[in-house]
## 1
Amino acid sequence: MSELLLGSGNSRVKKVRFAEIPVAFTDVTTVDIDPSGNPDYVHDLNVTPWPFADNSFDEVCAFEVLEHLGQQGDYKAFFAHFYEIWRVLKPGGYLIATVPMWDSMWTWGDPGHTRVITRGSLVFLNQKEYSQVGETAMTDYRSVWKGDFETMALEEKGDTFAFVLRARK
């Protein structure tokens, strides 16, 4: 199993458990903007495309990193980042992520946080959800979002929102 750990820093710990996902990394590739954590790749994840081939990984893990990418309200960057995750995942691969809860003191308290991701944000990554366009207030982003994720698990606990998405290709 091949895994990509985004924003690895100094940690190599899998922070989310899900029934179909192994507890420990088996073949992890790390990427971070800061070279001091000795990542395999030093790369600013705001710069796309990322330096990985299509369909390279069974899992992409992003623990407390997605809230550092793009800017709130910049839908093009939001979809560009999630597209990169979808692109590098193998068909059926998993995105395993944690971000601060929308109402956590860390959400906007951390000067490096630029975006809030909620369960509502994830709706826009699932192509089937666009069936509600015209019926609800959902904006139609299908002209910019070409990937597709299925939500497998969501957990809101304390200051943390954890989620697992599966790439549909």
## 2
Amino acid sequence: MRISHKHKFIFIAVPKTASFTIRKCLNPHSDIALKIIHGGKAHAKIHEVRDEYFKNEESKFTNYFKFAFVRNPWDRQVSRFHYHFKDHPEKSFKECFMDSFTAPTIQSDWLTINEEYCVDFIGRFENLQEDFNIACDKIGIPRQKLPHLNKSNHKHYTEYYNDETREIVAQKYARDIEYFGYKFGE
């Protein structure tokens, strides 16, 4: 999470949505960088840390421009696979997915407090530069070309799925798919 009192913004960094790149670009304009541990048991701390900050700083929270980015859940799963298993090329997507691969958290969980959305703008990974430009305009910082950091080289995400794994993602991320309007193959 990045916070700027000067520019009155709060950026909520959802994992595997170019959040590392966006945080790097926002760092010079940020006053506070809250580190929220995610993954495994530690992930539960995201709501605790964010909610506690917002509770203590409620007036700032309601007056600041809050934004985040989301990504197609099927594509996000493939990105996470390549990130976590890049040093184990012998493992197939299906093998990791079905046996030991822990799916990333539901994106809407990062963007809600008490099941209510708490952001003013949700950009899309699929429109990353254009949506980042919108956020820059809203918070009053110069637009900048986003570098492509943490890039993994892989085939189009649709090539990793069979009917079974595609349906598992559809069920696990049904809320994200419905709310953000994602479809497989788009």
## 3
Amino acid sequence: MTGKIKVWGRVTSSNVKKVLWVADELKLAIERIDAGGKFGVVDTPAYRALNPNGRVPTVEDGDFLLWESNAVMRYFCEKYNGEALYPADARQRADINRWLDWSLSTLSPVDTRVFLATIRTPEAKQDKAEIARMVEQAGHAYAIMNDRLKDRPFFAGKQFSLADLALSIFFDRWSRNPFLATRPEAPHASAWLARVREREGFRKYVEIPLE
């Protein structure tokens, strides 16, 4: 690898956190450029030429351009010796991919609604009844996670993988959300998160203020 990999995106974005954390695990040299949220940038013609979706993260690895955080994580592991996080074995990889896809198709839609209605909404304007309904919906998804972890330390078995990395970012912000008076118990998922919290990348990129 020559030169630094450019990562466009603000550090508070859950999807940018994934990419930065994987890069940290693989000891990659990264140049991060603020974009999205209060930084703007994503609606400029120059940025849209990089990523027509106008979202973060966007990654430039030399002359290779890539967006979609899960695709970036896989790419980093496949190119930069990340088999410990993303094993080459077809079944192990499929298991990890299943949870990465599930995080986008099932978990993120319900979790993000809770996040936007609480962390991103002034408390005086929060609809408590609607939030309670959202929490119930998200709780069903987190119950699936909790059940998966009842008899294993990590999502794909005994070893930490990309599945744990991606899902822990969601479960952490769900667990730390100060506006949720109650949330369904998830003891197995909570024990799993405690294990994930021991990783340096989690402490560096995930344990930051929610905003």
## 4
Amino acid sequence: MLLLPEHRAIFVHIPKTGGQTIERLLGHGHQRHHHAIRGLPADWPQWFRFTFVRHPLDRFVSACNYSVDMAQRHQGRYGRRSSLGSVARFRLWLLESEPDLQAVAQRLAEQRDLRRIAHFTPQVKWLKAVQPQFIGRFERFQQDLQTLLRLLDRDLLPAADSLHLNRSGSRYSRHDLDPATRRCLARLYRQDLKVLGYKAHRLP
């Protein structure tokens, strides 16, 4: 969570939904703990809470590309370790074995610990915990960002045209999502699809 005391606001940063761009516009650098549901003030229900969400299948593809990027960045460090945790092993598997998205989705379905990785965790986890009053959509990012900044501080409006930060690589594409993979992901993210109103067969 990113606390903004000057606005009495809380940004619920769900990974792979454009959050780093929002943080930069608000004058804050990204920190890993911004994804965690902790550190809320005692009176947090009285604060304005906001977040952005994304089609869960599109977010899954972006998370896969991000994991490949991270494996490339840290491959040397991983190689110096005598043992690796599940996240590092998963990232190296994506980098070195180059599995298709169906294989990745199946591995997530079989290994519960991988679904605890923030980038693959269903978005409803954050929504249920903090119950944001404003939920923007990645699919209409600029429009919803303008609305958000207007709610927070009109002086920030000119910054809303800044570039999308933290773009992931492009090994995987939404076009790689065949019907079997979509069905598997629809089961994994059924709550996201239901609560957020997205359709597994329809990407933006």
